[in-house]
Amino acid sequence: MHILQTKNLKKYYGEEPNIIRAVDDVDLSVNKGEFVAIVGNSGSGKSTLLHMIGGLDVPTSGSVVVREKELSQMKDEELSIFRRRNIGFVFQNYNLVPILNVYENIVLPVELDGATVDQNFMDEVVHVLGLEEKLKSMPNNLSGGQQQRVAIARALITKPAIVLADEPTGNLDSKSSADVLGLLKLSGEKFSQTIVMITHDWDIAILADRIVRLQDGRIIG
Amino acid sequence: MKDKKYFITTKFLFYGILIINLLLIFISINRSSTAVLILSQLTFILFICIAWVLIKRTFSVFFTNLFVMMDKMMNRETVPDFDHIDDTYVSQIYHQLNRLYDVLQMQQNSIEQEKSKVQSFVSDISHQLKTPLTNLHLLQEALKQSGISPEEYQDCLEKQGKQLDKIDFLIRALLKTSQLENGLILIQPREVSISQTILSALEGILVLAEKKEIEVYYDNTTDYTVLHDPKWTSEALFNVMENAIKYTPQNGKLTILLSRTEKYVKISIKDTGIGIPPADLSNIFIRFWRGNTNILEGNGIGLYLCKQIISLQHGYILVNSIVNSGSEFEIYIPL
Fold this sequence. Notes:
The structure holds 2 protein chains of 2 kinds. By secondary structure, chain A is α/β, with parallel strands linked by helices. Chain A has helices at residues 46-53, 76-86, 102-112, 119-128, 144-156, 174-190, 202-205, and strands at 2-13, 20-31, 35-39, 61-66, 69-70, 87-90, 162-166, 194-199, 210-215, 218-219. Chain A has one domain (2-219): 3-Layer(aba) Sandwich (Rossmann fold). Chain A is 33% helix and 27% strand. In chain A, strand 4 (61-66) and strand 5 form a beta hairpin. In chain A, helix 5 packs parallel to helix 6. The two termini of chain A are 21 Å apart. By secondary structure, chain B is of the alpha+beta class. In chain B, 61% of the residues lie in helices and 13% in strands. Chain B has helices spanning 2-31, 34-74, 89-144, 150-181, 194-211, 230-246, 302-312, and strands at residues 190-193, 215-218, 225-228, 253-260, 264-271, 316-322, 326-334. In chain B, strands 2-4-5-7-6 form a 5-stranded mixed sheet, covered by helices on one side. In chain B, helix 4 packs parallel to helix 7. Classes of the chains: A alpha/beta, B alpha+beta. The A-B interface holds A 1, 3, 32-33, 67-69, 74, 77-78, 81-82, 85, 113-115, 130, 145-146, 159, 161, 175-176, 178-179, 181-183, 185-186, 192, 202-207, 210-211 and B 78, 81, 84-87, 91-92, 95, 98-99, 102-103, 105-107, 109-110, 261-264, 266, 278, 281-282, 314-320, 330, 332, 334.
């Protein structure tokens, strides 16, 4: 029951002899509902891998299959709709829209898809992430941890098949990190979400069901 | 894909009707000619007929697809992919239906996983009990032999006692886990002092710590009222503390710190023990997993039980560890 699979995935930059193998022949399978952490030092290719999984970057060769659909065979427009519906992103630097308030930021992806917001689900997500009091606030008036929780809510609101988190606590102090991590895991369990999180931090990775180690673009167990 | 073609053709036809008719009407007014007006009416009717047929086709393809999908779902087979991923309602319905199937499958899977967990648990129990039982049998055989010296006799009895202790310990630990595992125990959260829970866990390890002359530090002046199950949480904390003592050499130090974040209360249990190699970190919470099997006794249940208890209360555990320097377990319980 794989929801995500990469086959011989490669991303090379430059040409021989100065070729850089950012991601080198990665075969990764993620089951539905699994929480996987990809751990590696900076420069191990983990961000590149995540971007390719999310269809934000094009592989040199190999394939990414999400929900039995191969991303490389999609047209640009199809890919962007597919991404919006199936993949939720949480970035290190939150990427909230500064001129929209918290509520508007969260519902943005739903409104982009022309759908109506499932109000009950919205309330539940906001409650789980503890954002009830902050819905009217502007992102700039929130702490880093709160902003990241808004980003998680935004990633969850479309009920995506997969949530991809790129160093979600990279910019946070240890206290806010604790909140963000706990709530990420909790919401994954509560909303039967598949989560792929990348981090350089072993302490954080231990939270996941499975840890994948990446070194020099290769999986080493 | 067929329905998409029909859909697009219908769309073009629709605009076609509009433009041509407006043009014809415009011409007929301009020339005040009834013939052109009638022509415009005729083309209008013709277009309507063609559009009608196409719309019917679109719907029939769409409904047939839905029918096939639901049929496959009922049989729990792989669902064929009809979604052409665009911004139409048709595509959204395909998508939602697929997601619904995914979610239901996931729930089904987790039920099946629970079931196989219980099965593996039963086989684990029998496996774990086998070794001490085999040993007991061997010792029994040895005792039956005639002509063994009183010293040997005494030795055998002592060994038997140890094996019995092992079985006793295993059964008690296994009982606890099985109760948790099978949902026989309900976590009963109450709004009570977390400091009291920590203290009651500490009581259990003080003797052990004293034996190894390990200094235990806990400042109970900060306290929070947290919604948690005091009995089971204290059991979880006890397991971590007991482990810390076990893996800390003589004259070490155990520090327990209580603090809070916005959403969680954090209990940090820090020792000056042998530490955990990074590669082992992901295994320590697995049932029956044992790191350093040759040094100390243990059964690989304590930390597993601890994680279960904390997870059931929607909390989580992080571990920082440096080999030969010490480990820190951070236990987070939601406020």
